Amino acid sequence: MSQRYLVTGGAGFVGSHLVLALLRGGASVTVLDDLSTGHEAAVPKGARLVHGSVADPDALGRAFAEGPFEAVFHFASLTLVGESMREPVRYIAANVAGGAALVEACIRHRVARLVLSSTANLFSEPAKIPIDEDEAIIPGSPYGESKAMLERLLFWADRIHGLRSACLRYFNAAGADPDGEAGEDHRPETHLIPLVLDAAAGRRPPLIVFGDDYPTPDGTCIRDYIHVADLATAHLAVLEPLRTRSVRYNLGTGTGHSVREVIAAAEAVTGRSVPHTIGPRREGDPAVLIAASDRIRRELGWRPRFPALETIIAHAWAWRQRNPHGYR
Fold first, then answer.
1. CATH number assigned to the domain with residue range 4-174+225-251, chosen from the 4 options 3.40.50.720, 3.40.50.2300, 3.40.1570.10, 3.20.20.80
2. Tens of pLDDT, residues 75-131
3. How many Å apart are CA 123 and CA 148, to the nearest integer?
4. In whole angstroms, what is the distance from residue 8 CA to residue 32 CA?
5. Boundaries of CATH 3.40.50.720 in the chain?
6. Distance (Å, rounded) from C-alpha 30 to C-alpha 162?
7. What are phi and psi of 55, to 5 degrees?
8. Active-site residue 143, yes or no?
9. pTM, rounded to two decimals
């Protein structure tokens, strides 16, 4: 019998790529998603979709009835940093309540392992760059705060109930499935690379670059972009250590690229210009965020297969060319 896994938020960007990786490995996958931000068409064929929220006891019951599960992967949450600054109560209440309900269900159904989709937004004031797992957690938004609270909840769930957990702090997820079976389609879109590609394709107005006066070589913010397929393999890699202990890892390539470098790389990949204008800085945007992923490399042997920015952009561009309207 194939191993069974539950993926909450499996109709979303990173979640759907993890579902693909599990299915390709021969696993049986149940997806729990309320489709408020995800897309039913993004759920890979072969996965079972349970339509509902992690905060809904009935939906959780229907999802766990598909078990027993070897592990649960938790992606389902509200994720827009800017929106969380406008609606802090909604973000913290929804993300923490939903996560707590899921953790309680895992304990009740005797699931031994849970993998949390966490965030680099835990680190708004890093003392050093690249950022490692020993960096002080100072969330940069209510969204980041909600993930920090879930990480603490999982600490106590392990200590008291033995629920092993992996908290994976993503930096900037990007790209698309190299075989073209999944891609990125947020509504609204807030990630830089799809915004750049849509501007190049003429599908949206010129890109706004938020600030060009940062203390970086070209004045624009620098971020660490990690391929979504590499994030999926990291989720698979942590399953084995979770048999004996909980883990926390920062996930990135260790290399940063500025907004202007992303634009230049996109122009090289697409052969099109990227129209853009310079706008004011966004409140709370750090100048540089780069991950130190040495710990997961050393302990688990994980390595990004697609670290090059041009490759990440090329995969994203290929998917958007085949799917100009996303999953619609």
1. 3.40.50.720
2. 999 999 889 999 999 999 999 999 999 999 999 999 999 999 999 999 998 999 999
3. 10
4. 5
5. 4-174+225-251
6. 23
7. -85, -5
8. yes
9. 0.96
The confidence score (pLDDT) of residue 82 equals 86
- pLDDT of 285 reads 81
Q: How many other CB atoms are found less than 10 A from the CB of residue 205? A: 11
Angle between helices 57-64 and 88-108 (to 10 degrees): 40
CB 244 within 8 A of CB 193: no
Integer CA distances (angstroms), 76 to 31, 94, 98, 112, 199, in order: 10, 10, 8, 19, 29
Report the alpha-carbon distance of residue 181 to residue 42 in Å, rounded.
Answer: 9
CATH topology of domain 192-224+254-322: UDP-galactose 4-epimerase; domain 1 (3.90.25)
For residue 285, give both structure tokens.
């945007």
- Give me the helices (H) in 133-191, please: 142-161
Q: How far apart are CA 198 and CA 212, in angstroms?
A: 21
Catalytic residue among 5, 91, 143, 214: 143
Amino acid symbol at 234: A
Please check whether residue 260 is in contact with residue 191, taking contact to mean a CB–CB distance below 8 angstroms.
Answer: no
Average pLDDT over residues 292-314: 98
